[in-house]
Each structure stands twice: as C-alpha cells, then as structure tokens.
Amino acid sequence: MHSVQFTAETTSNGVVERDFTVGEIPGVLWSPASGPDRAPLVLLGHGGGTHKKWPAMTGRAHLLATGCGFHVACIDAPGHGGRPRTAHDEQEIAALFRVREAGEPEGPVVVRYNAHLAERAVPEWQATLDALQELPEIGAGGPVGYFGLNMGTAIGVPLAAADPRIAAAVFGLHWPDALAEKARQITVPVAYMLQWDDEHIPRASGLALFDAFASKEKTLHANAGRHKELPRFESHSAAVFFARHLGDPGAPRA
Amino acid sequence: MHSVQFTAETTSNGVVERDFTVGEIPGVLWSPASGPDRAPLVLLGHGGGTHKKWPAMTGRAHLLATGCGFHVACIDAPGHGGRPRTAHDEQEIAALFRVREAGEPEGPVVVRYNAHLAERAVPEWQATLDALQELPEIGAGGPVGYFGLNMGTAIGVPLAAADPRIAAAVFGLHWPDALAEKARQITVPVAYMLQWDDEHIPRASGLALFDAFASKEKTLHANAGRHKELPRFESHSAAVFFARHLGDPGAPRA
Asked: Is this model's pTM higher than 0.80 or not?
C-alpha cells in the first residue's frame, strides 16, 4: 500500500493545510493548528465538475477543523481537479453538456456517469483512508465521518456501504436510482439534505433515497429552494451532526 | 387591555422564572439573569394534555434564555394546566380516550379538538403578547418567535397567520387538514419537524403541511422514529434557527 506523501503546507486562520498524494491520488488534509494529539477525521467528497480545493470544500474544512477540532481530508475524484480524463470521461461530460444545451433532464446522465465514477473512486478513498490512518494524529480505529453532496453522495453512499470505518455520514442532492440499494446497507447515523424545489431531482426521488437508509438515526433537512440554493447554514448543521456522532471534546454540542 | 401581573419569581441556572397572569390567563416568563436591557421574545406553545411548566417547556426555555439570551414565555392553553375545562372540553377528551382505547386513529379527534382550542387560544396569545410587549425588557416592535409542536402547532399556525408580530416560527407534528389553509398565509421563516415513522400522522400528511407554508425560507427536519421520539437535539436546532432569524447578539450562530 501507499503512504501519505506531503508535498506542501500552509497555515491560515488556525488551520494547517497540507497537500498530499497517496500513490497517484492528490489530496489535501486540513488540521487544527493546535489541539489534542489525536482527533477524528472527516472525509469530504466534492461535487461533479469541481475539485478538492473548491470553496465549498475549504469552507467546510475550516468549519470542521476550527469548530470541531477535526482533521478533514478531500481527494480529487477521478477525472477531476488535476487528474487525467479517460475517453469515457470525455464522452460522458459531452453527453451532459448536450442534454443541458437541449434543456433535457440531466438526471439520467448524472446518475449513470456518477455511478461509473464511484466504482473508480471507492477503492481510491479506501486506499487514502488506509494511508491517513497511519498518521499518528489520526490513527487507526478512530471514528471517521464522510460529508459529500451531489457527486460526493454518489461516491460516498457506496463507500459507506463498503467500509465499516465510516461511522456517520452527511449526504444529499442525488437520485435513488443507483444508490437506494447501497443505502439499504447503511446503518450508521445519516443526515440527508435535499432541496424542496429541486429542478433536477424530483421531490419524491430525494425522499425515496432518504427513506432507503437503514440507519436507526437518520435526519432529513429539506430546504425551500432550487438545486443550487442549499443554504450555507447546513454546513453548520453538518458540523453539529459530526460533533454529536464522532465524539470530539471541543465541539459544538447539540 | 390587561397588563402583566407577576405573582412569583425564582432564579436557577442563570434564568429568572416569573409566574404571571394576563387577565385570567396564567403564564410564565423566563429571562436571562443578566443580559442587555432588551432582548427578543420567543413564545412556547405546549402540547395537548400538558401545561406551561411541562419539562419540555422549561428545558426549551432554559436553552433559549441561556443559549440565545432571549426572553421566553408560555401560557396554559384553554382547558390545560390549572385552567377550567368546559363541558365541550370534557366531551372531546373523553372522545380521545375512547378512540385510543379502541385502537382507532386519533387524528380526526385531535384535529377537530385542537382547531376548536386554537379559536380560543389565539386571542389569548395576542392579549398576552400585547401585555408582554409593554414590559421594558421586551418592548413593542422587537422580533417575536413562536415554538410549538403538536397542539402547540395547531394553535401557533393560526396565530402566526393572524399576527404579523410573529417573525419566525418552529412548528411540527400535526396534520394539514385544519392548518394548511392558514399555513399558506404564512411567509415568515419556518422550521418544521416531523417524525418519519409517525404512527399517528401519515408521512404524506406531514409533508403536505410543510409544503403549504408560503415562506421563502422554510426548512424541514424529519427524523427516523415514532411520534413521541423526536430527538432532543432538535431543541438545539430550534435555538440555532431563532438565533439566525431573531438577530440576537450572544447566540449560537449558523
């Protein structure tokens, strides 16, 4: 297996940001500049067409690192960020642009392409998690959270179904078609976010995916608004959720 | 109009609790033991069969007073707490016990009786609010929140529809039958709580009531579990919601 190779380090607003690679996978690890020797880890899954340092990722990472004292990691998904695209990636991206241009529903393309990406991404996340857990400040056996919406949910749901190290997860904004069966295998606490007036994902589809999780503890946050209008305060909700379930000492408690 | 007559005062855990009457309506006002000269007010509506000092009320009041610096008031609903019951109250309570005994759905009785109580309770809340706003520490014109589930929603929805002083509200756990039309008149921010596995309120009914609110900003929190299993952390969610919308200085911000 590959270990974590750090390639750059900066510090801002109380958060140390370290770029790393695990084999060919580029990632970033955010950590509190000061804190206990060991703290829980939250994995962030970015959305389609973005990358590991997209503003939503750095914003959530800082919130979780400074608000909860957690380590936070994100990796570029296959074909995203600086990573090479395959011919299949190029075809699917072209297909997505075509349906958007034509004003046709993008769901079928997104569902199909994200399911393909998840097959490539899940083993990458598992290799990354293996390597991160070798770091003394994270360690094996500690609780791990996962937080990803949109494509981050398409990858995170099969990851959480496959990997018992994921102890709590925040998902949202996806279709049940390729995910409901995996969701039925997930029993850890889940928070699910959907937009009540989503123009891409029918309301009943979002509710069906939430319904599919087998978790005893699951909570749905549905907000008025369109697909891209998820309120920013839901990042705070996610932090409170992880503080509750990952058991950090210095966190915003519910 | 009647003014607030204080009848008793105690202080515990940083919260001053003052019993009061407004005319014949008995109430309680919780306030931070220390804080600014003036602060927002949140009204608590208790559930059916309980009263103004039910543990859920005092718990929420302490959370809002110490966590957000708010004043918090609750009054006994008609026929509840120490208040006299009419012959109609006795009939409806007997009807409720009968359907419960028989294992029949209690929704029809609860919906009908709560709608009746709301007609009596809304003017009482408005008279109480008039009187509370004459207190210098509350004042007229400041933001007012309302937080009530179950019967507290059956009373709070028509109150918020009728009274423009209600600037934000937390509702939940009720049927749309008698409330959806009033909900369509409400445009202030609303948080709505429902239980995903509610044995009394069909899921589609709860979702229909949330859907009916005309508010641009509305958020649904649906949790796995039965009617009485609303997680206690939702009181914290409500506090964060009120802190966001009532604009208090010392509050848990999202």
From this structure: yes
